[in-house]
Structures are given as C-alpha cells and as structure tokens.
Design brief:
By secondary structure, this protein is α/β, with parallel strands linked by helices. The longest helix is centred in the N-terminal third of the chain and has 13 residues, at 28-40. The model has no long low-confidence stretch (mean pLDDT 97). The chain has helices spanning 28-40, 64-67, 70-82, 119-131, 166-171, 182-189, 218-228, and strands at residues 3-7, 13-15, 21-23, 44-49, 90-91, 102-105, 135-138, 160-161, 192-193, 203-206, 209-212. It is globular and about 40 Å long.
Length: 229
C-alpha cells in the first residue's frame, strides 16, 4: 500500500485584479475522483494545507450544472462527506517527502491565491521532482510551480506541462478579471506548455511529472498515478 500526499489550497477566495474577492477553494471533482480511485485501490491519503487549515470546497463545483448532473453532484458531495482526511489536514510546512510515495495537487482557483507563492509548497515540489516519485498536478494547481523559482530559475523549466488554459479561463469569464493566468505564467517560466481540447480530458507525462489540463483530467491523471505506483 502506498501513502499519497494531497496538497490542497487553504483559501476560500481569489483576489481579482480590481481587489474584489472571488469565492473559490478546491474543485470537488479534482479531489473526489483521484481520492476515490487511490483510496479505493487501498492506498493511504494524507491531506496537507498551508497552516493546516481545513480546506474549502468551491461550491460552484458542487452545482449540478457544473458537475454534469444532479446524480454526479450528489456523488461528489458523498465523497467529500466521507473523506475524513479533509477534516484533519496536516500543516504543509510539516510534510516530509520521505514519508510519501507520491504527491498530488488538485486545483480550483484557490491555488491562484496561496500556493503560487507558498514557500513550503515550492520546497516540496522541488524535492518531489528530484525524487523520481510520481508528482501529479491538475488544472489551476500547476500555478504552484511558480513557487519553485530561485533567483528566477525553476527546475521545472523545460518540462512538458499542461494546465487550465487561457481559453478555459475565457469561457468562465474570469480571464479579464484575473491578475494573471496559469498558462501565461507557466509559459514565462519556460515550461513546454501543451494543451488539449477545451474541457476535454488531457494529461501529459514528462518523466515523473504528471499534469492534467482541467477538472475532466483529474480521473485520468489518477489512473496514471496508479500505474506508476
């Protein structure tokens, strides 16, 4: 049995460029699908957040119109209710990579507020990449890679990476309000940014780095983690 660290945003809002706070958190599907697949296969999940804060789910992600149907929304709520790990996260600063076999970052807009500049997350990502252990990051969560910069240089530079695209940010009406976008900043960092169709599952594997483009990519990403363990 493997032990997998889920690193989740600790915020319930995203500060837009006009200073207003957009309610957010982690995206339900991006936690629930990998959690169900990995725990269902017998693996242990540990949740870590900045400060050990109990993470906030983005309530939009539980709306039937966003989840896909009433039935799917109810299933997601059921997973979140049953996942006791969400209610007793450890502090990200105390997470030791040696204790885990893989690391996974679900998205939602929350990482755009905290993880993109979280030093503890940056150190963990650098260590995970160097370790050869599976490191999986989906949707907005690849913005956390920005925290790996040291004097403007990141070990992720040159890796093939996907993430939530500008086109998808446009589709939900938030690109014009955003202080920055995941795609723009990763391109500036020097990753080889690749994309699939808008809203369609799309994953990329480069060495031990596994990335997914959007919420629909979370389940396929989990399957790749399972294959790697």
């Amino acid at each position: 049995m493997a032990k997998i660290l889920f690193v989740i945003t600790a915020t319930g809002f995203w500060t837009l460029k006009d200073g207003t706070r957009h309610p957010t958190g982690y995206w339900a599907e991006e936690f629930a699908a990998p959690y169900s697949a990995l725990s269902g296969a017998g693996h242990e999940i540990v949740v870590a957040t900045p400060g050990g804060t109990v993470p906030y789910v983005d309530v939009m992600s539980l709306r039937p119109s966003m989840a896909g149907s009433v039935e799917i929304a109810e299933q997601l709520e059921g997973v979140l209710r049953s996942a006791e790990e969400l209610r007793r996260p450890i502090e990200l600063a105390n997470a030791r990579l040696d204790d885990y076999d893989a690391v996974y970052y679900p998205g939602g807009h929350g990482p755009m507020e905290d993880l993109w500049q979280d030093a503890d997350s940056g150190r963990l990502l650098i260590a995970a990449l160097a370790s050869g252990k599976p490191l999986a990051i989906v949707c907005h969560a690849p913005v956390a890679i920005l925290a790996t910069r040291r004097s403007g240089v990141s070990p992720f530079t040159g890796y093939r990476v996907t993430a939530y695209t500008n086109d998808e940010e446009d589709a939900v009406g938030l690109r014009v309000k955003a202080p920055f976008t995941v795609e723009d900043e990763l391109v500036k960092l020097g990753v080889d940014f690749v994309r699939g169709e808008v809203w369609k599952p799309f994953t990329v594997v480069d060495r031990n780095l596994y990335t997914g483009q959007n919420p629909a990519s979370a389940a396929p990403l989990a399957e790749k983690i399972l294959e790697a363990l």
